[in-house]
Structures are given as C-alpha cells and as structure tokens.
Write the structure tokens for this entry.
Amino acid sequence: MAITRLKLFHAPASRSARVRWTLHEVVGEGFELERLDLARGDQFAPAFAALNPNRSVPVLQVHRHDGSVQTLIESAAIVLFLAEAYPAAGLLPPELGSPERADVLQMLQFGATSADRLLWQIRLHEKVLPPAERDPGEVERSRRRFQQQVEPQLAERLRQGPHLCGSAFSAADLVMGHNVLWARSCGLCGERLFQRYLALLGRRPAFARAFDDVMALQA
Ligand SMILES: N[C@@H](CCC(=O)N[C@@H](CS)C(=O)NCC(=O)O)C(=O)O
C-alpha cells in the first residue's frame, strides 16, 4: 500500500539520527520532523508515551493511501523498513537471499545490537545514571570489548571497503556509520581509517542534512 506521508519524532544526537539520515537518503525533504527535547522530558508526555510505550526516539508514523497510520519504533527496524520500501535508493542489494544482502543484514544487526549495547553501557555509566550508581569498571570493560571485538572487524571491512559491505553504500552504513560517529565521541574508533570513513559518509548530502542539528548543538 502506497505511503502518503512520513513523520519522524526525533531528538538530536540520539539513535533517531539513523532514521533521519535514512529518510533524507530515500525521500530527500519529503517527510515531517517533530523534535523532542529528551533533557526536558518530552518523551514522558502522555501523547508521546501513547505512541511509544518505551518513551524513546525514534518513532516513525507511516500514513498510507488507505488512510491507515502505522507507528513504528526501533531504529534498525525502521532503517530496514525504509530501505525495503524505497528500493530505488539502493540501500539493500536487491536479490533476496543473496550473500550480499545477507551481509548487509548481519552488519546492520551487529550495529544495532552488540556494538550499540557496548556504546550504551559506556554512556550510561559515564553520563546517564546518577553518580552514585555509575560503575567505572563497566565503562572500562565495555571500552575494552569494543576495541577488541568491534573495531577490528570494522577496520578489516573498511580496509577492503570503502564502505562497510564493499564498494556500495548500504543500510549497514546508516546504522554502523552512526555508531562510528558515536564511538568517536567516546574516544573510540581513533584509527585514521575511521576518520576517512566518516569523511566519505560526510560527503553524502543526506548525512549533512541529518546531522545539521548536532553541528548546531556543538556550535
Ligand atoms: N533500541 C532502541 C533504543 C531507543 C532509545 O533508547 N532512544 C534513546 C535516545 S538514543 C531515548 O529516546 N531515550 C529516552 C530517554 O533518554 O529518556 C532504538 O534503537 O530505537
């Protein structure tokens, strides 16, 4: 059923940036954006909690031609949904069941689960939890595991790349590229090849649009 309208609930410097970036890749400016201020607690407003009981961003509302509105949560699932719904954007190798498509799926999930979890543990114990509940040991363990498990796998792929799954940009870059950006803000992914990878991604107009609010925050 044809999609008639897309609306993203988004907060800068959060996982919803993956979805905002994907939307700019697939429909350019053809979507609506509602910004939430997580520090102010907008995610706990009853109207938003009714959309996402997890009280987190991203949330994507998909309006279709038959008048239905579907509410989607979970950044990686939404990235995958958009990649499938807009095949002309070329974010997934087209052949179902092909090794190339399987590789993009595994890297996208690796980004959304194992890598994301380690980065989240670092953030949680450095910034989010009340100081008395923070565990510096957990930060250290997560950093070490990221450096020992995630970085070498990404580096090996980027050496062959230039993208994560070969020569073509894909949905895996949308999730893992965002993670590399996040990792660098934690002092990880320091090797030059990660810098080169982000420079490559940064040349995409959709990337620049998607992260303009982060740049504005930093400025
Ligand atoms: N697994 C979810 C995680 C979503 C999530 O935790 N989002 C964070 C921002 S990165 C959030 O909205 N947190 C709400 C809060 O800080 O209270 C996804 O990838 O979409």
